[in-house]
Amino acid sequence: MVKVGIVGGTGYTGVELLRLLANHPQARVEVITSRSEEGIPVADMYPNLRGHHDITFTVPDVDRLAACDVVFFATPHGVAMSMAPELVERGVRVIDLGADFRIKDIELWEKWYNLKHTCPDLVAKAVYGLPELNRDQIKGAELIGCAGCYPTAVQLGYLPLLESKLVDHRRLIADCKSGASGAGRGASVGTLLCEASESVKAYGVPGHRHLPEIRQGLSGIAERPVGLTFSPHLMPMIRGIHATLYSVLKDPVGPDLQALFEERYRNEPFVDVMPAGSHPETRSVKGSNMCRISVHQPQGEDVVVVLSVIDNLVKGASGQAVQIMNLMFDLPERSGLEQVALMP
Amino acid sequence: MVKVGIVGGTGYTGVELLRLLANHPQARVEVITSRSEEGIPVADMYPNLRGHHDITFTVPDVDRLAACDVVFFATPHGVAMSMAPELVERGVRVIDLGADFRIKDIELWEKWYNLKHTCPDLVAKAVYGLPELNRDQIKGAELIGCAGCYPTAVQLGYLPLLESKLVDHRRLIADCKSGASGAGRGASVGTLLCEASESVKAYGVPGHRHLPEIRQGLSGIAERPVGLTFSPHLMPMIRGIHATLYSVLKDPVGPDLQALFEERYRNEPFVDVMPAGSHPETRSVKGSNMCRISVHQPQGEDVVVVLSVIDNLVKGASGQAVQIMNLMFDLPERSGLEQVALMP
Amino acid sequence: MVKVGIVGGTGYTGVELLRLLANHPQARVEVITSRSEEGIPVADMYPNLRGHHDITFTVPDVDRLAACDVVFFATPHGVAMSMAPELVERGVRVIDLGADFRIKDIELWEKWYNLKHTCPDLVAKAVYGLPELNRDQIKGAELIGCAGCYPTAVQLGYLPLLESKLVDHRRLIADCKSGASGAGRGASVGTLLCEASESVKAYGVPGHRHLPEIRQGLSGIAERPVGLTFSPHLMPMIRGIHATLYSVLKDPVGPDLQALFEERYRNEPFVDVMPAGSHPETRSVKGSNMCRISVHQPQGEDVVVVLSVIDNLVKGASGQAVQIMNLMFDLPERSGLEQVALMP
Amino acid sequence: MVKVGIVGGTGYTGVELLRLLANHPQARVEVITSRSEEGIPVADMYPNLRGHHDITFTVPDVDRLAACDVVFFATPHGVAMSMAPELVERGVRVIDLGADFRIKDIELWEKWYNLKHTCPDLVAKAVYGLPELNRDQIKGAELIGCAGCYPTAVQLGYLPLLESKLVDHRRLIADCKSGASGAGRGASVGTLLCEASESVKAYGVPGHRHLPEIRQGLSGIAERPVGLTFSPHLMPMIRGIHATLYSVLKDPVGPDLQALFEERYRNEPFVDVMPAGSHPETRSVKGSNMCRISVHQPQGEDVVVVLSVIDNLVKGASGQAVQIMNLMFDLPERSGLEQVALMP
């Protein structure tokens, strides 16, 4: 059994890790930390966990965490970089669901996150956590900076097009829609039911922290700097990301895009290329680790429209982290991730 | 492996059976029927099942169904009674999620369902499917009429109070709230998003088909005819039932109600008595087979208020049916039912 | 033109006053206060008001408020009682949408609100603001404590039954359902979209601040102390209250309840008794000042079920306050309150 | 008083016309037709209208309609073209909220609507109903084909950019999000609450009927054929359209886009250009006839992102139709359209 520690267990990605690990046959949560909830059983905070977990929040303690095989950070940015160095040194594998180890350009990171990075050396060693992109690197990694929620949906959607160099890498437009759980569990007026339901709005159009991460990822795939416009929108729902991805084909009469996508993802356990003509719904992945994708070339013209949906808390966060843990510990990749999405 | 057949697989209780059985370690769906969708893979209709089931809808055929160990009817009333007799005769165990075998008084059934019952003899043999009430009878049954969704939430909430004869059985008021999935997947104006979201209404206050079923159940528990007012309400959400149950204590200073409930349900795998003072949320059971209950005696007066929540499609329908199958085939009662509710 | 001041304009009842007064032909908002938003135009905070109001929040200032004809307090409890005495003394009429002047028994108020009342004498002079109950008193009042949202829905539903002494006043059960806007605009985890949507729960079953207010009102109507159980529930929607009201007829074969209700409310501009057999939906009053009511006697037994719906922010708060202002200033009672509810 | 007839009064645009006209000071609904609901008072179908309208549905009858000054068609395509010719001939002004008179190219219309057009001559005479584009033509028109919901939001967003020829007209991408009321009130599985809430999906990406209408409109504005990709998405909410509009500046350092938009719409009563940096929410126009727009140039690069929101049932349908009626009858343009959007 893999011994698991979780730092920051009170947020939505923390409770989602607990949900997924509750039925994981080869892993067991040994430590879960929260400064504010010390001594409280996790099931008191999240009654869905009653009968599934009987552990209690403790204050973060490196010694206790160091007794684990792997530690997940389900924390705001800035926390993982303060504790990861010691854990890595003591041989614990670290999976950060936050943003501290995603961006290789330290200056860029510091600009967008408005914070001094405290362990730039470790960033260089960290592996970006997106299995469909770099599964082999992940297997041997000591430290993972998991892909963000929007970045996962966007990169999986553009991957076959950019790898194959079929589209103009300078004209990418990602119009993304996310449920409110992406904003986390913090009390804030903007995500009150009365403010965010029965309405739709864009936000962060002038610039969003996931922009440099996506740009870095897509540029790596395209092997040259991409031009990207990224517009996130808040949806009146809890879970789900829908990325609508536009790009321009270099040659509109060339390729069989459906076959391209099917081929690229044939062996991926968590990417499902839908039949031609489909429009995936976010609810078809609600609670599951799947990404469902369809590809369109409307009216046979030169614009490709890729539709890519994930559950932001699963494939966009905690499920992806468990998938990565499975890879790191040589467990079956699907372990603990067999949940069927809830429909209706 | 238990070989499973499902009649009526296109509705919400049908797809929910498929979701639950996808990960059931000792059962496999062999046949699923739908007249309208013959030849269509179930995953084409419900994309959440892609990768989990690759079977195809067939027209209902008694011979094919008779090759199963158990057949679930996830059909409107009137269907099960037309096919169950032959299946039972051929040794197949039958679990009806509908209403055909729930009510023992045939005349009463015919009045509320406005239909001639075609196999009253079988009704007499059928066992009412509510494990917390009659687990032993269920184990040996050939034919089960599963408890309805409202009846499950209401009976589990009143059970300890009526068994112990602590409350006035003539003055029961069940104010119940259900998500829209209780109305099924049929196209109807009343449950369009535009009609049923952002609004609350009562319905069926003058009389609802679950009234005689609940009354029969509670009268059995109380060992005398109860007086019951039952008011269902439509909630602007997909899943969940919240029953708010009022009754009058014969002696307000007597009993420790919290202990009474905890004791009664101590060994029940799917009933969770919440700590004193709790208010269970329907989302704490979303997608899971749990019923969570709390009991209140406001201001120390003589009215008891029990709050009982279930997921109407799981403990109120398909999960309960799987729990019953487990009992009938001597499998672990929790098999296939370990899902943790989705929060948030 | 009636000159209007509003204290506490940033909450939901404040913005709702602004919405209603925007089109009021005989009133104009002259002052609106908010400590935190001083100097900010109201339309910056609430873009729906762009083009309708161009006034700016100011810090509360008694002199400026004293230049108004009427001042609304759309504030948490405790604020109005600190400013009302001086305003009343200076001849300004005061309408408090909060709870400071609703409860006559000061000790009781202090117990439930956990605060020392600073002007008990004024409570004695204040008139309870529920026009259907005491229109004439309101007309001449200097100070109004407006009925709360739940209390409005509950009292309007029970009024004809208790006035006519047809029901047992000792056995009243009010099962109430409210949209999340009743909790106000403060940032809190419990009313985040991710916590409160797709779920239903009761709260405050052991005791809620509206209980003593409702009990006082119903006891006044019944002319004797009533016995009341009050269970509020949080609904996954923004606006609306649905009160389901149970009581026991002294004589089940006696009265024509439909006629009783129609007669009682025949001349009320904002109470609509629905046709017999109806189930009013909260959306039928969304954004409007109407209360819609229907009355049932299920199965002809002795329990009466009254269904009463309002928009908690309109008839349950700001609309009622405007109706009261109209009465106080001898304006047509419907002025500014002609909005048709939004369906769908 | 303008005498108004409405053909097809049972759908969402019909009831919305009734809501808006209920408080219109210079118009009165004299006739409302519905084959299926003949003899039923409109308030029986839409209880929000109780107390506001006491007319009754009648079967469509040209003579009765011909006695009106103006007839609105709130009908599916194909209905207006069958009745409009006679009405126009008899001097009645006709405002079609449907699609029969929007597209000038009859062949194109017949292809997308899969129907033979029965009065192509009238199409030539019809005026496209979008006041911000062609107010003067509307004033004198006999027959109006009102702009569709998506086309209104998209054209108002692109108008200043295309008129000024600042952007590449060949690379327009309109990513649009609509509430479910856009699908109408017909019973259909796809817009059940259980199917459409808590989920987001695109639809019609290969081709949607509003595509040729938008393309015709934008090409007219640009004075050359535009290249347009149009992706509609279904939102889990009732009302609202959010259009996110992408285009490429010919010269990224040139123009002050904020000033361009403010100048263009300075005198428009129903277009509100938000302050620079804003992200309009659909709820800020819920129930009102406003279109709110903001314009962004992310990171100072060459892509312009315009955000344009309307209420699809008001500015996208019935409100626009009333605005057009006001223009045709020389009434104040805002008459009957002063509603403030409902927030929250």
UniProtKB/TrEMBL annotation, chains A, B, C, D:
One of its GO terms (cellular component) is cytoplasm. Pathway: Amino-acid biosynthesis; L-arginine biosynthesis; N(2)-acetyl-L-ornithine from L-glutamate: step 3/4. It is an enzyme of class 1 (oxidoreductase). Keywords: Amino-acid biosynthesis, Arginine biosynthesis, Cytoplasm, NADP, Oxidoreductase. GO terms for molecular function: N-acetyl-gamma-glutamyl-phosphate reductase activity; NAD binding; NADP+ binding. Its main location: cytoplasm. It is found in: Cytoplasm. CDD domains: AGPR_1_C, AGPR_1_N. Residues 3-141 form the Semialdehyde dehydrogenase NAD-binding domain. Its EC number is 1.2.1.38. Belongs to the NAGSA dehydrogenase family. Type 1 subfamily. HAMAP family: ArgC_type1 (MF_00150). This is N-acetyl-gamma-glutamyl-phosphate reductase. It comes from Marinobacterium iners DSM 11526. The gene is argC.
